[in-house]
């Protein structure tokens, strides 16, 4: 089981890092596929898909707008315009479906349909948006450093020093000490990485900037991990899926990255536009 988990984890990580390095339409296509699979897992987990169904009227709208949203990212020069346009149109279509078929759907169905789209498709797309930044080829890796390093070192620090429970009801094995280690180690690694690439990047004080980016990314990655666990507890499921042997589904592997990507993007934009300019 451990061997399977390690091998599948390496394959997933290597594939993701390769497409991130390639960037452009290759990364966009990969994220579209990952988003569609993740969206299916989320819809199934919260009960929008029942009796083995793969698609329904409301969930079909979520899938369609995921494709449309990634098309907007490809077509529009301003990606945030495409994001807002897709979100507004999706709300209008979902509410139109809700009112014109009333009382076929509950309000919660519409809410979860939109939430799944934003939580999975939009938030994952920040990997692509970060890669598109002026220094994105250097910054985008911090999304994975802060998320995956946090997982490893939070576990290790918690095993060695953990005494105080972080979320005793939701995740009894996680500790405050582990959480601190999960933030501190990625932050230091990010600082070292920034120092090493300093001569190649047009960004003031890259060591300090990358330290902050990784610390913030690692902190929110733990919220992402716990929030995914909370949903699974609410709906009494162990994993979101079985696609990745030893890990579960796409959302089980990317639950922390989903939160880390937007955080890294917005802080990086802040430093690039307002601090380093």
Question: Would you kindly provide a brief summary of this structure?
Answer:
It is built from eleven helices and two strands; from the N terminus they run H-H-H-H-H-H-H-H-E-E-H-H-H.
Structural key phrases:
277 residues; mainly alpha; 2 domains; two-stranded antiparallel ribbon; globular
The low-confidence parts are none
Radius of gyration: 19 Å
> Which bin fits the share of residues in helices?
over 70%
Strand content: under 5%
Largest sheet: 2 strands, antiparallel
- What oligomeric arrangement do these chains adopt? single chain
- Secondary-structure element pattern, one letter each: HHHHHHHHEEHHH
Number of strands: 2
**How many distinct folded domains?**
2
Average residue pLDDT:
89
- The largest beta-sheet arranges its strands as 1-2
Query: How many helices?
Result: 11
Q: Give the terminus-to-terminus CA distance.
A: 50 Å
Tell me what you see in this structure.
The protein has 277 residues and is an all-alpha fold. It has 2 domains: 24-132; 135-277, no CATH class. Helices cover 76% and strands 3% of the residues. It is built from 11 helices and 2 strands, in the order ααααααααββααα. It has helices at 2-22, 24-45, 57-75, 79-100, 107-124, 126-132, 136-139, 141-161, 176-197, 206-234, 250-275, and strands at 165-167, 171-175. Strands 1-2 form a two-stranded antiparallel ribbon. Helix 5 packs across helix 11, helix 6 (126-132) packs parallel to helix 11 (250-275) and helix 8 crosses helix 11. It is globular and about 60 Å long. It starts with a helix and ends with a helix.
